[in-house]
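@channel sequence for tomorrow's demo:
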Amino acid sequence: MKRSIVALLAPLAVLLSGCFTSETPLIDGTNADYPFQSTTLRTDTGEEATLVREDDHYAFAGDLDEGFDVYFDDFGGGLYLMRLGSVAEDGTLQSLYAVVLLDRAAGTVAVYRSIVRDEDFLAGIRHCVQDGAELYLACLDEPDPLIAIVRAAIAAGEAPEDIYAIVRMD
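structure tokens (generated this afternoon):
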């Protein structure tokens, strides 16, 4: 079940409810940060996935490569906005976001807010609208509201959605 890492970090479609997305990419090769060259992460069930830097983005290695480009934006203290970008069948660019906390000393990567919560919409994040209907997708116009939510959650002692062990990081 190596797919569990991809399922949490890389939902397969923007149409899935409860995701964070944006109309235009908030992170791309022009403003991305590169906290490592490559890393292998392990779930609590022992499954592993490797991210490798390729030019201006990261990609999942091996059979986990689902065509996602992965980007990071450094917000200090090990906190990163992570964007997973892909091109849909109709040629449109899709972006999904989560916030990760990289703790090299502890050897972990904690995932926060890969799934939107009702209260997130009260904190400056808007619902996406399609054909005049409000969707349960969170549209980010900028990263700051999401980063503020995660910082407050961490300060309040909220548990992350998932924690991965760093097996290797170059």
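heads up for whoever presents: Residues 144-155 form the longest helix (12 residues).
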